[in-house]
Design brief:
This protein is α/β, with parallel strands linked by helices. It folds into two domains: 88 residues, Leucine Dehydrogenase, chain A, domain 1 (Rossmann fold), CATH 3.40.50; 145 residues, NAD(P)-binding Rossmann-like Domain (Rossmann fold). The chain is built from eleven helices and eleven strands. Helix 2 links the parallel strand 2 and strand 3. Helix 1 runs parallel beside helix 11, helix 3 runs parallel beside helix 4 and helix 9 packs antiparallel against helix 10. NADP nicotinamide-adenine-dinucleotide phosphate binds next to helix 11.
């Protein structure tokens, strides 16, 4: 069997194309476009790429993007002061502080920053208010990555109701909200993590398997029930040619790609899973673009709500 590829990039383009006229209508009604404040602290290369793609996507759908790039030496107090300013601003409907924050800011800095963002502008969906609303299945701003996965499943005609969903990973931004969203859609949900015994056997009972671990090619064929839907959230970089050959095979175009770019992206799911799964999200071009599209959707929703028109 060769898995059906769930084309996240195509679905993300669809979502953004739907948003563009809605953003224009918002701007025409309110005399200003929705505004998104993005804060990047430090020089983490992956964060720089994510922020650039979020800013570009926001500009393309018609948002006003206010990008703040701060040096890694910025104090936590200064970041909190900036967030407070953005909270008070009428022009900013959404605020995004890219994580991870520089380690020098200290433990607990991320939570402090996220706790400072006005929940009405929390377009990442990480605030206690947003998470509480998700737990209670009330309308609110949802964490973008799992919300994007739900959109993908819906638009690809994959209904989680009555299915056994297994999620590997219990992070606040992916694993836990994913579990809740699937639960609300009537899946029977199992959450696995680094202390789960018999991980492969548990996963092999899943109709829907979501891998959000952060380990290259961790989910191999033995984790997957034949015909299952597999969603690969992982974004890992391989720079060693031997590793690229080991995962993708000697004839793979990824070998040339690594030579040109210095590294290639790989998910948490081993490429061999395509031979067993019924449907599979690719990396790149799967979950990543959806995360950005859902950020756009959240920003418009936050703007509509602040203008008194949303839920
Ligand atoms: P995280 O906070 O590091 O969480 C990883 C989870 O995986 C933890 O719950 C951990 O268990 C579990 N885990 C680690 N090793 C394991 C093992 N050997 N067996 C079973 N479980 C194991 O990561 P995250 O933020 O959720 O991100 C996960 C991956 O998704 C990363 O590759 C990240 O880059 C990617 N990501 C992609 C997008 C996107 O848009 N595509 C968005 C967000 C994240 P414990 O809790 O027990 O430690």
């Amino acid at each position: 069997m060769t898995a059906r590829i769930l084309d996240g990039a195509r679905v993300a383009r669809e979502i953004r194309a739907e948003l563009t006229p809605q953003v224009a209508a918002f701007a025409a009604r309110g005399g200003r476009p929705p505004g998104l404040g993005i804060v990047l602290i430090g020089e983490d290369p992956a964060s720089q790429i994510y922020v650039r793609s979020k800013a570009r996507a926001g500009g393309e759908v018609g948002f006003w993007i206010d990008l703040h790039v701060l040096p890694a030496s910025t104090s936590l107090a200064d970041v909190l002061a900036l967030v407070t300013t953005l909270n008070r601003s009428d022009r900013h409907d959404g605020i995004l502080v890219q994580s991870p924050l520089p380690q020098a800011m200290g433990e607990g800095a991320t939570r402090q920053v996220f706790d400072t963002i006005d929940p009405a502008k929390d377009v990442d969906g990480f605030s206690a208010e947003s998470v509480g609303r998700l737990v209670q299945n009330r309308p609110g701003l949802r964490s973008c990555t799992p919300a994007g996965i739900m959109e993908l499943l819906d638009r690809c005609g994959i209904d989680p109701a009555g299915r056994h969903a297994v999620i590997i990973g219990r992070s606040d931004i992916v694993g836990k909200p994913m579990a809740l969203m699937l639960l609300h859609r009537h899946a029977t949900v199992t959450i696995c993590h680094s202390r789960t015994p018999d991980l492969a056997d548990t996963c092999a009972r899943a109709d829907l398997l979501v891998a959000a671990i952060g380990r290259a090619g961790f989910v191999t064929r033995g984790f997957v029930k034949p015909g299952a839907t597999v969603v690969d959230v992982g974004m890992n970089r391989l720079s060693d040619e031997t590793e690229v050959r080991r995962f993708f095979g000697d004839g793979s175009p990824r070998i040339d790609e690594r030579a040109r770019k210095g590294s290639v992206l790989i998910g948490d799911v081993h490429p061999e899973v395509a031979e067993v799964a019924g449907a599979l999200t690719p990396v790149p071009g799967g979950v990543g673009p959806l995360t950005v599209a859902m950020l756009m959707k959240n920003t418009l929703a936050a703007a509509e709500a602040r203008a008194g028109r949303g839920t």
